[in-house]
Amino acid sequence: MNTLVLIPRSNRLDYAVFGTWDRAALLELHLDTMPLEPESAAEVLHRIRNDCRMFDNQPPQRVVIRCPFGGDVFQGTTVVGPDLLHQLDALSEYSPLQVPRVRLLSEAAMGVFFDATVAMAFETAFFVNLPESERRYAIGDASLRRYGYHGLFHQAACMKSEGMTPSGCTKTLSLCLESCSELAAVIDHTPIMVTSGTTPLEGLPGETTCGEIDPSIILTFAKKLKWGPEQINALLTRQSGMFGLTGQHVRLDTVLAACSAGIDPDGPLAGHDGMRTGLACAVLAYRILLAAGAGVAAMGGVDRIVISGQYVHQGRALAGWLSKRLQAASRLGRRPKVVENKDGLARILADQMTVRPSMVVG
Amino acid sequence: MNTLVLNCGSSSLKYRLIEMPSERELAGGEACRVGPRTDEPASISHSVDGHQRVVTVDMPDHATAFEEVMKLIGEGPGLAPDVLGHRLVHGGSRFHDSVQIDADSIEGLHAVEGLAPLHNPPAVGLLEACRAKYPHLPQVAVFDTAYHTTIPECASTYALPLEVRQNLQLRKYGFHGTSHQYVAEEAARLLGKPVEDLNAVSCHLGSGGASLCAIIQGRSVDNTMGFSPLQGLVMSTRCGDLDPAITLALLHTHEANCDAVEDILNKHSGVLGLSGTSADIRDVLAATNDGGEEAARMYDTTKVYLWRIRKYLGAYLTVVGKPDAVIFTDTIGETVPEVRRKLCADMGFFGLRLDENRNADPGALPADVSQEDSIVRALVVKTNEELAIARRTYRLLTTALSA
Asked: Do the interacting molecules here have an ipTM over 0.90?
């Protein structure tokens, strides 16, 4: 039984096919275009359906589509149907760039893969039931809440470390190293803290996103530079983070490589003196350290650190350093074990269809 | 040396006359409703030797208020100040320590005025007025931000483009430095070690503003407040940390009216925004749990308030590595045992164990409220920013004299 994974991105469509027994993908490709019309979406999916036929001459029996935002509505992977599409319409205003294109693809997938189960996996679903204390902001509008945006990676990370603690109660710091990284604190399978907020802009600085900043900085932009919300948004989302710190487009793996070379595990945080990549590395590592300490306080301890995401390999040194710092802070002297989850997003999505027992049928 | 400490608010002037180095308080008080006339008359509440009186007097600006204060102080024998110590909220990146006022420092103060537009201009105006009227009196400026100039670059840098950081002087400055430094010194004294060897997390939990400070070898290495006092913890009416997209959305909703958004985030958020009824966490904690909607809202407010502090406490304990103490200070930190109890619960990972009985009744401050076997000591220390300013002023001037 084959599973097709569809990952719509802003300017391309990633897809992969997984068989029943092999962890590796049978096929992993992308199209350098993301269809924005129903006709072109159907056409693209027909091409993908034909690609899939090269395996046993069978179309996929399962299709799973990644959706970055599911609001409070979707608490797990959900079978696509008219109700789901209707609910997505209601969510579009909260994620106007992403949700409509996922909806379009889903509707087309229902037609093209009429003989398969088509489901949608939401990045925010893992965090729907965050504790009130974590999800609320200290403002009057109670409808604004924290979500978290790499729920699929974190969920997989916790499954990876399942049963590793004799007590059966595992306290995990899950660090997802993506272009916009995220740290979550999870007890067993229940997340209780996450760095991202209402949007992925909050929390750790990303490749081009600012992460945590003083709210008054935005007002300073508006007052002193006379910038409007769009201009400020462009600065915070596309010109900040590692890009802002280094002054050049730099991928997170480059920064993490600097971290590997520059972090003295037994000394204060240090980057490469005089190099702006060194500053980016030091800022990122420090923010991760703060978030990890916050997560430990939230959980009342930590058993392991699980790293995942596309930059998992380059994050090894950082995770090792983090583990040592937490051991130094712990008066119990325990060093949290570092676990790597090397599964990519496509594999994790396929597992949503094959491993997860609690698939919600919407 | 009689040191008159002046703390200039946007519409108030607090003062205390302290004899140094004995640290004996000679007089004190507060001028209220300084500025344009309001419905209530402007007045000065003046106190000498525990005897308090209220004087109603028109005070259109801080210079006039200061003049009136000097008149009241001058009524008592032997109370003439020898030196003035001013509290300055913001010293920017320019002032790393207290400074004796001269023409250069006045110019420097004007350069950083824009970083604290509500607080610095009246304080600098007062400095200049004092200088003109009493040129013989030495004046010292003590900055709330100075203690935090040791925060390393990795903690003080926002992940924003260099050009905007430089142009707008955007960095984490940190605040409440005078208080954090003072309680760190007191804690070191209590623990019997030099402050240069003290590693701690200081929790300045006021009924208004609040911040935590990570301290390594007596120096600040991080503070929850940032470029402004808005960042960080949930405060009485300030929001603390917020997703940048929310601030942007508010700007959009209010048609780019910055003042309206600033007003929401500074004056209608925090404990007030969450509870909807009170800006004081003590009211929220005291609310009766009758199972109703109001009680649930109060309960949630408490949880959010404490959770944010707890997360930062864990973050800073991790940064500090091997802390000697967690220090609680200011109104909430000193007087609300329940807050300390909830913050220290389940912190065994960090070696912090509170003694329930000592915490409930710490007695005279400073006090150690941790269990005997707690590796990290939980200390309750009464802050005294005016005394701290007097000490810095005295130290600076006597050092200058001996040099």
From this structure: yes
Task: Name the burial class of residue A23, with classes exposed (0-12), middle (13-18) and buried (19+) by CB atoms within 10 angstroms of its CB.
Answer: exposed
B260: contact with A, CB 8 A cutoff: no
* Three-class SS state of A79: strand
Dihedral class, residue B137 (left if φ above 0, else alpha if ψ from -120 to 50, else beta) = beta
Out of A138, A294, A330, the one facing B234 most closely (by C-beta) is A138
Amino acid making up residue A203:
G
Q: Enter the tokens of residue A239.
A: 């010109």
Q: What is the set of domains in chain A, with CATH numbers?
A: 3-122 (3.30.420.40), 164-343 (3.30.420.40)
Best mutation target, B163, B247, B316, B374, to test chain A (most A CBs within 10 A): B247
- Quote the CA–CA distance of A76 and A120 in Å, as a whole number: 9
Q: What is the CATH number of domain B2-143?
A: 3.30.420.40
With a cut of 70, which residues of chain B have pLDDT below it?
A: 403
Q: What is the pLDDT of residues B2-61, one digit of tens each?
A: 999 999 877 889 999 999 999 999 999 999 999 888 778 899 999 998 899 999 999 999
Chain B hits for A331, CB-CB cut-off 8 Å, are 348-351, 375-376
CATH architecture of B193-385: 2-Layer Sandwich (3.30)
- Confidence (pTM): 0.93
Compute the distance between CA of residue B279 and CA of residue B277 in angstroms, rounded to an integer: 7
